[in-house]
Amino acid sequence: MKRISILGSTGSVGTQTLEVIATLPDRLQVVGLTGKDEVELIHQQIERYHPEVVAMAEAPAAGELRRRVGQKEVRVLSGEEGIVEVAKHHGADLVVMAIVGSASLTPTLEAIRSGKTIALASKEGVVMAGRLLMEEAKKSGVEILPVDSEPNAIFQCLRGEERRKVRRLLLTASGGPFYNFSESNLKSITPAQALRHPTWKMGRKVTIDSATLMNKGLEVIEAHNFFDIDISQIEVVIHPQAKVHSLVEFVDGSVMAILGITDMRVPIQHALTYPERTANKLPPLDLTENSPLEFKKPDLGKFPCLKYAYEAGKVGGTMPAVLNAANEVAVEAFLNGKIGFLDIAEVSRRVMAEHSIIRKPDLNDIKGADTWARERAKEGLRKC
């Protein structure tokens, strides 16, 4: 029996993780959950999965949840301290990190230091502080298992392979809903349109990042840090059908790929049951559906977020944290109707241009750069 804590259990990946756990009751057990302020949903999760400890990011939500659960045998904590305590919970063997954005960094780091295996769905922590996280994992003897479909596919392709034998990593991207739009049409995109992803079921922030191609840019930086591959060896390929979930090319010209249905429960289950493979009742891949499979080069002119991510990854230091923070602020502003779709990239560009890079940052430097970038991005919103 593998005991699991899910940080971000009320989000898209978190709820799908619980669905996978429900199908494998003899193998997987929930011991910890965290949410932001979704009291009703997490109360339902407590009733069904009976965790030992729960944390809510917002204190009022934690108070309301305590009133609802009454005298049940579950501890309800609050704030970042409470989330970190769930991440370090002694009863957990594996921590699923599904908190969106930079808020995932500290809990991930503390879970690693507590010796937990990490199933990582939140790429932002590895984007911001990949070197530090990977060093801590090595020091603690902790394995980090990628959950997102593309890095999970690369992880599977590289199993048993030597990194020095890799020529290229090829990250596939669906292209989002607007890849074939003209630049003039992109100017009038609304949040409602951007949230209708044609292929994947994801959370709001990740869905917008997919539409701007920033999600793929962050994955480039993530893969660079996670797999210790030079960023010049990582390429992005637009693949609208989303059947091929990334590829690895080796020095002898052989190319290995992972294909599968467009359902996050497949890579989630792989990470939860690793190193074993377990049967499920999901539909098999039908290669004739949406055939033929297409592959295109990304258009960096229309979607500059990907270009800025490559630039941040090449520069390194604190720049990836700055890019991530500025993008988070810009995406939130777009969702709230304060800026246009194309302004998301422009906010990130301006903040990056103003940043004085720290080449070899420690954790405080990274957090400082994150705070600075958020302030500059919020000031920059008025110029859009």
Descriptive tags:
384 residues, alpha/beta, Rossmann fold, four-stranded mixed sheet
Brief account:
With about 375 residues, the chain is of the alpha/beta class. It has helices spanning about 10-25, 40-50, 60-70, 80-85, 105-115, 125-140, 150-160, 185, 190-195, 205-210, 215-225, 265-275, 305-315, 320-335, 345-355, 365-380, and strands spanning about 1-5, 30-35, 55, 75-80, 95, 115-120, 145, 165-175, 235-240, 245-250, 255-260.
Care to describe what's here?
There is one protein chain. By secondary structure, this protein is an alpha/beta fold. It has a domain at 2-147: NAD(P)-binding Rossmann-like Domain (Rossmann fold), CATH 3.40.50.720. The chain is built from 16 helices and 11 strands. It has helices spanning 12-23, 39-49, 59-69, 79-87, 105-113, 124-140, 149-158, 183-186, 191-194, 204-212, 214-227, 265-273, 304-315, 319-335, 343-354, 363-380; strands at residues 2-7, 28-35, 53-56, 75-78, 94-97, 117-120, 144-146, 166-173, 234-238, 244-250, 255-259. A 7-stranded parallel sheet has the order 4-3-2-1-5-6-7, with helices on both faces. Strands 9-8-10-11 form a 4-stranded mixed sheet, with helices on one face. Helix 2 links the parallel strand 2 (28-35) and strand 3. Helix 13 packs parallel to helix 15 and helix 14 runs parallel beside helix 16. It is globular, with a radius of gyration of 20 Å. The model has no long low-confidence stretch (mean pLDDT 95).
